[in-house]
Design goal:
This protein is α+β, with helices and mostly antiparallel strands and about 300 residues long. It contains 7 helices and 6 strands; from the N terminus they run H-E-E-H-E-H-H-E-H-E-E-H-H. Strands 3-4-6-5 form a 4-stranded antiparallel β-sheet. The radius of gyration is 55 Å and the shape is rod-shaped.
Amino acid sequence: MNYKKYIQHNLPNIIPALIVFILLGGLSIFQFFKISSLTNRVLVINSELASTTNFLSQNFGEVSKNITDLKQQATGLSDTLSSTQKNVDAVKNQVGGVEQTVGTISGTVGTLEKLSKIDPELLKKYSKVYFLNENYAPAHITEIPTEYAYSSSRTEKFMSEAWPYLKLMLDSAKSNNIKLYVKSAYRSFSEQQSLKSYYTVTFGAGSANSFSADQGYSEHQMGTTADFITTGLEGQLNGFDKTEAYKWMQENAYKFGFILSYPEGNDYYVYEPWHWRFVGVKLATYLYNNKIDFYDMDQRDIDKYLVNLFD
């Protein structure tokens, strides 16, 4: 077989095949080097990843240890704060106790100062119990304006500190269409002595003692007591308890600090519905709400209200 002729005859077919072969061979070599390069790259990446993983693993251990340390420190700090808070609370309690003590002392001093300015005689039970000497008189006395007095020929007086309460009561009665007037108020020791002598001569000693106090034992001498009257009685006190004025006082006098000294059945004098005494709003309200008579209370219990007499 002549190969030369064969090749020349088939050269047109051989050349494309040869070209394809060469191209495929070149492509294979390129792919080989490409794959080899990628393989090397993967190996490098794996190596770097392993190194990074190892680094992260070591750092994670350190971070975990740091977190544990921080937790322990936080626990210690929490214990310290708790202990500090307990100390603060203890100090607060001590300070609070001191403040309370100081407040109590301050309140006591204030109360004593207040009491020092109030006449201790003003809440005593004078009817045949306590005695006011001939020199006793209210430290401050006010003339009652004529519009509030029943008689225009006699000047009536009342203790200055208690007068605002009396005035307010009379004004309140007037606003409710109640005609209420002062018949008799402050009486000195000598005035009470003269009045008692007159009653004794007129009615006899036995009768006079049932409705009139001896000098020194009269509530009028304190200047905080008044006899009240209304129109329609022709100037007489008897019958006052049958009037609208008396009914109004029974329901309202305590609001202004006044109490009925000698109600029915008392152990001191005959029933005197016109005779009312100022004892302060707080005590008068207590007596009214509990249906207790002033002279039935123990003097020690009464004295507790002295500090609130003009409140």
